[in-house]
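Before the break, one more example. Copy the sequence into your notebook; we will annotate it together after we see the structure.
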Amino acid sequence: MIDEAERELSLAARAGIPGRFQLEAAIQSVHAHRAMTGATDWESIVLLYEELVHLAATVGALVGRAAALGSARGPHMGLAALDQIAPSSIVTYQPYWAVRAHLLTELGLTDEARAAYVRAIGLSGDEQAREFLTARSRRTIAGRDRARNG
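Here is what the structure looks like once it is written out:
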């Protein structure tokens, strides 16, 4: 399936006019290459998200860009990008809170991360996502407790 997707993406690229869906597919392609290489090219993902945000500045694209920036250039950069998103658009947008929690954890801001995890968990309609976020939240608290007691 990856090979087929790569062929389709290559055909679309020949048109020379990248569109929203082509950019989204390219982002997924970079992620898929992790299965073959064991690494994610976060800088490429950042560049693709930059173009996607230029074409379609949806809340999903903005949050994805922030996540990629956090992975490529550090959690401070990702958090700064999240802070630029209009507050009215993220009130009930669960991925924003999950990314925020992750970046705050990376910065060692465990109390703030825990609050963001609670918000993300509360906004999640998917049981598996809630379980994943709950486990992450517990690890964050455990790490904080180890740091305080260590």
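The radius of gyration is 17 Å. The mean pLDDT is 88. Try to locate both features in your own notes.
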